[in-house]
Amino acid sequence: MEWHHFHYFKVLAEMEHMTRAAEKLSVSQPALSRAIMRIEEELDVSLFDRNGRSIRLNKFGELFLESTNRIILEMETVKTRLSEMSGVETGEVTLGFLHTVGATYLSLFMKQFKDTHPNVRVKLVQNNSQALKNLLAQGIIDLCVTTHVATEKNIEWQPLLTEELFVTLPRTHRFAGRETLTVKELQDETFILLKEGFALRHLSNDLLKEAGIQVAISFEGEEVQTIASFVAANLGISFLPKLTHLAFNDLVQIPIEGKKAARHIGICSNKEVVETAVVREMKEQLVHYFKGFPEL
Predict the structure, then answer these.
(1) For 281-294, what is each residue's pLDDT tens digit?
(2) CB-based contacts of 258: which residues, under 8 Å, 6+ apart?
(3) How many CA atoms lie within 13 A of 260 on its CB side?
(4) 118: burial class by Cβ within 10 Å (0-12, 13-18, 19+)?
(5) In CA terms, which of 29, 78, 266, 276 is 20 to 30 Å from 16?
């Protein structure tokens, strides 16, 4: 049974007239008759009751028409989705990103992308770097903006931006006037850090470990903005990237002496998944967008 046979049967079943159905389908009447006979032979039932030149859909034909309508509708749906997937003006893309880059970088990017691709459906997923990598491997998200983490061979990571980490203090802190600070000097300070599992927390832990110090942690959060606001409220200090796009007048950020601590932000994709045109378009736009940011 060939695909066009379903359409032939549907038209004939609705018109119950061989000549008019053939004219509507722009095929010869013998060709239409052969197609219907082939369907009936394959199904091993007659779909029409025939009386001379008159034909009428029987109970088997009614049941097959129900299935035919579903098949045709499903095929049209699939064709529409495939068409959307092959174009960049429509379709769907799911983008994952770190809590620490959403407000800082992606809010402006998403506005620009939606302005230029208004018919693209974008789903956003926020999580830590390890969780994002897992979601990507499972095919739940198409792309993710995250730090460089150990990846499986099927995950591709493309660098976008490098951010230096700074000791971040309230403006009233005793170290606020310093040009640089060593991590060792911070051993008596209370820290406000991201939760375990976040890449930025891992970098902070490494800095403290390399300095050979243990510190008190008063709060563990999930958002850089929350951490910064608590530091501004004089509840502790932190290691944070440059807060270029977040306005906190009550904070100072001081370079770490003797070590350029940095985090590398990039875009991850799954090499084992065939990317749609709109996913490729978003990836290219992200790379172009981040080229506008200098290393911070």
Answers:
(1) 899 999 999 887 76
(2) 182
(3) 6
(4) exposed
(5) 78
Q: Can you say whether residue 166 is alpha, beta or left, with left for phi > 0 and alpha for psi between -120 and 50 degrees?
A: beta
- Shared domain for 11 and 142, answered yes or no, is no
Q: What is the tally of structural domains in the chain?
A: 3
What is the amino acid identity at position 232?
A
Q: How many CA atoms lie within 13 A of 203 on its CB side?
A: 23
Q: What are phi and psi of 135, to 5 degrees?
A: -65, -35
DSSP code of residue 154? T
Enclosing domain of residue 20 = 3-86
Please, are residues 199 and 146 in contact by the beta-carbon 8 Å criterion? yes
Residue 149, in any domain of the structure? yes
Residue 86 is predicted with a pLDDT of 62
3-class secondary-structure state, position 131: helix
CATH number of the domain where residue 239 is located:
3.40.190.10
Residues 203 and 270 in one domain: no
Q: Strand, coil or helix: what is 49?
A: strand
